[in-house]
Amino acid sequence: MSSRFPGTARRAALALTATGLALTALPATAGASPGSDPLARYHDQRLTWKSCVLGPDDTTGKELEQAGARCTDVTVPLDYADPGGRTITVAISRIRATDTDRRVGPLLLNGGGPGGQTLGDPPWVRKAMKDVAARYDVVGVDPRFVGRSTPLDCRWPTGSAWRGAGGDRAGFDRVAAFSKDLAERCRTDAGDVLPHATTRNTARDMDVVRAALGEQRISYLGYSYGSYLGEVYTTMFPGRTDRVVLDGVIDPDRYGPRLLKGVERANRRALEGWASWAAAREATYGLGRTRGEVLATVEGVRKAAARTPLRLGDHRLDEHVMPMVAFNGLSQHNDAAYGDFAQAVRDMLRASRGQRVTPSPWLAGVLAFVLTDTDSHYGSVQTAILCGDGAAPRDPEVYWRDVQRTRAQDPLFAPVTQNLGPCAFWDRPRERPTTIRDDLPALLVNATGDPRTDYDGARAVRDLWPSSRLVTLKGADQHAVYGVYGSACVDDAVNAYLATGRLPSRDIGCAAAAGR
Length: 516
Hints:
single chain, Rossmann fold, 516 residues, 9-stranded mixed β-sheet, two-stranded antiparallel ribbon, Tripeptidyl aminopeptidase, globular
């Protein structure tokens, strides 16, 4: 997500999450003859392609139109156990291959989240693909309940369920009550569709899209949570993929409602890297002359917000929200993203001193995302999928003990990563987590300092899939690399694979750009 966490691989920023589930046979519709396809009416549907522009203010639609894309809605069953019942739609965009003589087929995209829109991504992905783009139909898919697909919205007062636990038991109990309220809102406003918001059903939708496009196989590019979706799809539908690229790789054994647990160290390293950058620009931001001084400034802001909520424009930033600003500031390793976060820390520092502050544009966007209902749909879908994919501990004491155990080591991030959320109050998932297949020849991409999908996850999947290859961006605290970070080494490796279908003979290491 652009400036949200977890979130999507859009333009120059991403976010993250996901698990998978054991394959279950799809029942035939009542009265169907043995061997008939219960999904035939979905597989054989006729797609009506149209303009992607929804109105005069539709920037995404206009960008798609300028790139030559067309859009359509694909009908899928709400409940794959009842394919003759209620239906929903999945919105897709497509820029067709121009080199038809050497056409490979469709490349389906997922930018992460869960809950992130991908329909608008084909133009920038084609740019990253360079010459090889001409050989693919590049297809953006808004997953079920996301973006232009049939919506799911729990009418939340926030765009994110993630919060810091606070400094004491009273703060933790406030977050528990907040999380329980979010779960109840979903039960009230979207209870009829919640059980069907899962990665397994999104994978099933992908296969309907494949069939409706008239293809035997698809290629796939998935970022962050999209890597997990790719793992689940290739497990559930073996033999239906061609070339698979997973960027920001999630270890399927760690995916679930508590996906953030354990990423404190990577985020702390990213914070330290940013602090060194900010210290070198003390004249601009005034946060400290050394890395230690900058880190002390951040810690001072955290403590100030815990004492008294900081006033930033129309918003109040407290001990539960301040850590989320830090999380959102640490996913992209470049001067622009670092500068946005440095300005935000400066704004919070001034507010902690009692000054009247109008938040900078980036910080204003994060605060609106976390503290208003503007992006309720995003948080609703993200949480519904995480809770629907796997069960979370239901006893708040489990989370409280974890927070207390880790707080001293990292008082900024651990109270977020170890904390409880709405999944502690959610209904049990209908399906078991997917047992991911043992091997797949895929191209994996990850930065060593990725603060969202940490590098250990990429290495775990590389070990699980010995036929795969891993492209490592070394020395960058970057989430999502291909086409986003600007590494020619990484981009060329991915494009060579997309062009030839042949994986590198061995794993590849790429150096981070100097000075970033």
